[in-house]
Amino acid sequence: MDAKAVVVGVGPENGLGAGLCRRFASEGRFVIVAGRTPEKIERVADSIVSSGGSAIPVVTDVTLEADVIRLFDIAMEADSDSAPADLIAYNAGNNQPLDFRTMEADIFESFWRLNCFGGFLIGREAARRFAPLGRGTVLFSGATGALRGVPKFAHFAASKAGLRMVAQCMAREFGPLGIHVAHVIIDGGIDGERVHTRFAEAVAAKGHDGLLNIDAISDAFWMLHSQHRSAWTHELDLRPFKESF
Amino acid sequence: MDAKAVVVGVGPENGLGAGLCRRFASEGRFVIVAGRTPEKIERVADSIVSSGGSAIPVVTDVTLEADVIRLFDIAMEADSDSAPADLIAYNAGNNQPLDFRTMEADIFESFWRLNCFGGFLIGREAARRFAPLGRGTVLFSGATGALRGVPKFAHFAASKAGLRMVAQCMAREFGPLGIHVAHVIIDGGIDGERVHTRFAEAVAAKGHDGLLNIDAISDAFWMLHSQHRSAWTHELDLRPFKESF
Amino acid sequence: MDAKAVVVGVGPENGLGAGLCRRFASEGRFVIVAGRTPEKIERVADSIVSSGGSAIPVVTDVTLEADVIRLFDIAMEADSDSAPADLIAYNAGNNQPLDFRTMEADIFESFWRLNCFGGFLIGREAARRFAPLGRGTVLFSGATGALRGVPKFAHFAASKAGLRMVAQCMAREFGPLGIHVAHVIIDGGIDGERVHTRFAEAVAAKGHDGLLNIDAISDAFWMLHSQHRSAWTHELDLRPFKESF
Amino acid sequence: MDAKAVVVGVGPENGLGAGLCRRFASEGRFVIVAGRTPEKIERVADSIVSSGGSAIPVVTDVTLEADVIRLFDIAMEADSDSAPADLIAYNAGNNQPLDFRTMEADIFESFWRLNCFGGFLIGREAARRFAPLGRGTVLFSGATGALRGVPKFAHFAASKAGLRMVAQCMAREFGPLGIHVAHVIIDGGIDGERVHTRFAEAVAAKGHDGLLNIDAISDAFWMLHSQHRSAWTHELDLRPFKESF
Fold first, then answer.
1. Cβ of C227 and A236 within 8 Å?
2. How many whole angstroms separate alpha carbon B106 and alpha carbon A149?
3. Which helix (H) or strand (E) holds D216?
4. How many other CB atoms sit within 10 Å of the CB of residue A219?
5. Cα–Cα–Cα angle for D162, D163, D164, nearest 5°?
6. A92-143 per-position pLDDT tens digit
7. Which residues of D are less than 8 Å from C172 in CB distance?
8. Between A100, A131, A148, which is nearest B124 by CB?
9. Please, what is the end-to-end C-alpha distance for chain D in angstroms?
10. Do B165 and A154 touch (CB under 8 A)?
11. pTM of the complete model
């Protein structure tokens, strides 16, 4: 009986969250599809079920402690057809260039809340639930901004650097307890709906394979979960071959 | 006529904030002593004045936007005896080891609010005021936790890493506009009241010069402000000679 | 018809080099087993052949330019049963704690020659051969010492940091030309002959899965070669779950 | 009686090495001017002496162990007018963009020999001589290339990253013994002869204060030597205010 897998931050069907759900389902997992918008996560869960997989949507605002606790209550149940979750991917987040001097204080805060605080809530709850079992994988979608702050991205870099530290502290504390915590630095545009809608010209300029393919990213997430515990990866970067860095 | 200098996060007389105030005053600056506790900042300002320097206390909660704006309104005034500020040091912050799994969500948030969000508010306001003048120095007290997250310090590392990114984004954007932004990584215990009160045994174990001398840290802050603009430092570490790292 | 794969720095049968050879062979590759000691590489090649795979030993001193060129001459041949190589792993290297003050100059140099210069020769030759074809993977075995220098390891850290920079410069230049260059930070003891012979006590202290399993490391190398070019990894760490870092 | 100070890698009078010599002399030090070209170091020493300072030239090839030992034999003498050296700056080095694929192996090696191996020889000798005395400062001129490898600079980045690790290992081992080891990341063009001769157009494009002023860099070196041992800096960057990074 396979364990459940949870993906947090699922939005449109062609986004990374949905891709992770499909990938985990294709490996036989019962997938908890967590996101803010009921219609979106229902569509993702439905499409998995209609392809023969198992999935349920769970409406979750990751910035609300109660929602996160409830999500884990569901994820850690032992059903007749799936065992308690041993894999969770934190893929919630937001990004957008903003002028530093005119940025409103509550905008700066809102980026932190989604990009960092939600990751803390999920990470802490995962640690609480997984540590007594001595197993589990916690994967965070990170960004280059976590390592390097550039103009127009102070709100983004500050929040993603915070998330990275949450992941790093967790890895050092909970690795020896059997929990695999990894931080995936996604460096480039993701080939999903958002980028095509918002940045059509930039996408064209990138050329073939110039955006990160969602299945390729999902391969990396699954690979991390599958690693032998004698050779775990804590951090890796993913980047289109032609992306300058 | 000397420009004003602002120190944010001033507490007890033998803390780093007070030390920075004294140092800036000894260089002839009119010092704005900003902190949350009226009695503490009054004592620091009084002691500067009674030594022949110039200083006023300004009660400031750096996590409140209105307080930060008001602080700069005062700092940027051109008085009969001092020019608008061209130097601000952000020294507010908190640190304490905390267990990850039992940490309350609002504790995690409160560390971010003081260690990172306050730094954003101060940094943004400094950028707004200094950029039109094409000059000014903004110094942030940072920590090794900003670079490396270890067990019991996720709340601290996440917030300090965020502050570091605010500083880095500012440096890249505002350096070319004439604003010097620097991040000082203080790696070790500071030889002030707090450490002696709370960690007397650890202090004894460190031995002579095993804690960072406050005047020595203040030297580094003043040196950063004094650097020629053709050779500015953005980041440096400060560490007792016997501190392991 | 599969392409050849080259492993440089192959020694004992239970070392990492031999493990990489076996793994590449198991994926159907004709493996070029390169190392300094004829008996050792012959044994590795023989064992692959006797298991139904394809492999030949090529005696190579990676610190000699002529040897490296000759190795690639062989690797890039199109035989009746295998295409020119599109995968090379640089696994040559040495490590040993040494006192800084009493270290002989030629010892410092010899570590550089094997850990860094050989990597340059291999990397440069790979770039020369792969770039015109617009494809190929170059993998370097790296170490934490490349990122952090600690007492007794100046010779090691200096040479491994150099190797890391060779890999990084190559990735930035040749990635857009279709060559995947990756640097694998192996952080911990490898579960091979050497560690058991030399450090038996330390091994026992590490406990079960406290050393990096060679098949697990080889999984990571093969995974890197298999990545879709829209989501390449340049750097990742591998570490036993209980290893402190 | 002041201690001697040594500057290694002194060339033209308007280069950084000469600037460091002048600065140390202006602080009252008897300066050992070390470099490869007799005429150049004689001119630097003469100009210091004619300005009322004390200096002697010592012809030194830092890549030759015997030269380095002889240099320290001279530097550690207690003369009637100066005490044994307690300060040494390693400023030897070379840089130049080179194509990776056509770079000769001996060119790659020669960059390592000057940028890294010479630093090891100087650092090791300094450790040998300073450690028994429990004091001394060792400063290394570093570069951004030590942290980040970009196309055309593999030879430079690999050697400078190696030098950085030598400095870091030394700091961790010898700091607690009273030796201050620091690595100065010079990020930008230095306003000396070489850059004006070779890159006149680029210099013009940088504009006023767009190159690092040599006196400003020298300030940083002297400041490092002057730091109180309770707050030593191991690494700092220096960069023109308008330099993009």
1. no
2. 26
3. helix D214-226
4. 18
5. 90
6. 999 999 999 999 999 999 999 999 999 999 999 999 999 999 999 999 999 9
7. 149-151
8. A100
9. 43
10. yes
11. 0.97
